[in-house]
Structures are given as structure tokens and as C-alpha cells.
Design a protein that fits this description.
Oligomer: single chain
Strand content: under 5%
Order of helices and strands: HHHHHHHHHH
Structural class: mainly alpha
Distance between the termini: 105 Å
Number of strands: 0
Radius of gyration: 29 Å
Number of helices: 10
Shape: elongated
């Protein structure tokens, strides 16, 4: 009887295993919770990232128009998200201001790598310097709002300085190695010249002057023959 009982038990287990193998893929999912949960987590992460990007873009424009006093609820509405979504990403006005500025710096730093891959060294430098002019304009727009941060914006600027100087140095080094500009060129001189134009500008079209200066600076940096 013992042998018969063991046989019946083994037969029952085998039957269950065969039944499980015969289940449809949909039914088998319930036995694999990890694989089931992974796709479900991806979409919220993507949606959250898109929401964050929309908030930052709208916030940059809003701070440019109205300064630091811009209503965060208005920013949320224009970005097409709820106020709760905005505050989950940016709990305070200060964190939103900092994020707007840091995002512009990160875009500028990332552009160096992209341009270096896609363009000849001298053209990559020129294209990046034109983007730097746009960055200056953004900084001028956001700076008054950043000044409302507790302790001032100095820490924000200090953190971004390394990214910007690193980008221009990498670009200039490649151009020098390619023989397109003088070896004694200080990369920071290019930035100082463009910043100087923006600081002394008395008209809203200073960006056009700065863009013309980009070509003048590159031409003036050519090797002396």
C-alpha cells in the first residue's frame, strides 16, 4: 500500500507539472511577477521624465517673462500637468529655478560631445560658441530670478563653471591638434570675449553682434603663416 501511495503521489505531481506546461502564456505570467511588473514600471518613468522636461521648458519661458514671482500653478497649467506633479518634481520655487539653469548648462555640455562627433573640429568649435551665445542670453534672463535664492546664485554658477570650461577646452584642444588655430590660444579668452559683448550690450540685438564676433574670433585665432 505504501508503494501504491507513493506512486499516486508522484503521478499527481507529474500531472500538475504537465498541466502547468499546458497553460497559456497569459496564465503563466501569474507565475512570473517580476517580468509582469517590469513593463508596468517603464511607462510611468517615461511619463515622469516627459512631464519634468515640459515643466522646465515652460518655467524657463515664464521666468523670462515675469521673473521669480511667476505663479508655479500657472507653470503647471501651461505645462499640461497638475500642481501636484510639479511639486513632486520641484518641491520649492528655488529647486525649480536651479533646475532650469542647470538644465541649460547640461545641454551646453552635452552639445560639445555631440558636435565633436558630427563635425570637423573647427566647425564643432564654431557651432558650440554660437550655442554659448544662446546660453548667455538664458543666463541673463534667469539671473534675476536666481538672485532670489537663499544665499544667492553663486553656488549654482560655480557648479556649472567646470562643465562649461571643460567643454570649451576639449573643443579647442581638438582644433589645435588639427592645426586650424594657434597653439597658444587660451580657450577661456573666447568665452571672455563673448561674455564681454553681452555685458556692454545696450540694445536687444546684442546676440547678433555676439554671433558675428564668433567668426571674428575664429578667424583671428588662425595660425600665422
Amino acid at each position: 500500500m505504501t508503494n501504491r501511495h507513493d506512486f499516486d503521489k508522484t503521478e499527481s505531481v507529474s500531472a500538475v507539472q504537465l498541466d502547468n506546461r499546458g497553460l497559456s502564456p497569459v496564465a503563466n505570467i501569474f507565475c512570473m511577477p517580476t517580468k509582469r511588473s517590469q513593463p508596468a514600471r517603464r511607462k510611468p518613468r517615461m511619463d515622469a521624465q516627459l512631464n519634468r522636461e515640459r515643466i522646465l521648458e515652460v518655467a524657463k519661458e515664464a521666468f523670462a517673462r515675469s521673473g521669480a514671482s511667476t505663479s508655479l500653478d500657472d507653470i503647471a497649467r501651461q505645462a499640461g500637468v497638475g500642481a501636484g506633479t510639479l511639486y513632486r518634481h520641484f518641491p520649492t520655487r528655488d529647486t525649480l529655478l536651479e533646475a532650469v539653469y542647470r538644465t541649460e548648462v547640461e545641454k551646453l555640455a552635452a552639445a560639445e560631445r555631440k558636435l565633436a562627433q558630427d563635425l570637423p573640429p573647427i566647425e564643432a568649435l564654431r557651432a558650440w560658441m554660437l550655442l554659448f551665445v544662446d546660453y548667455i542670453a538664458t543666463k541673463q534672463i534667469i539671473a534675476p530670478a536666481l538672485n532670489t535664492l537663499v544665499g544667492g546664485p553663486s553656488k549654482v554658477y560655480e557648479a556649472s563653471r567646470a562643465q562649461i570650461t571643460g567643454a570649451i577646452r576639449a573643443l579647442v584642444e581638438r582644433v589645435i591638434e588639427n592645426g586650424d588655430i594657434r597653439r597658444d590660444l587660451d580657450p577661456l579668452d573666447l568665452l571672455r570675449a563673448l561674455i564681454g559683448v553681452s555685458n556692454v550690450a545696450s540694445s536687444p540685438d546684442w546676440q547678433q553682434s555676439a554671433r558675428r564676433l564668433v567668426d571674428i574670433l575664429i578667424t583671428g585665432s588662425r595660425p600665422i603663416k
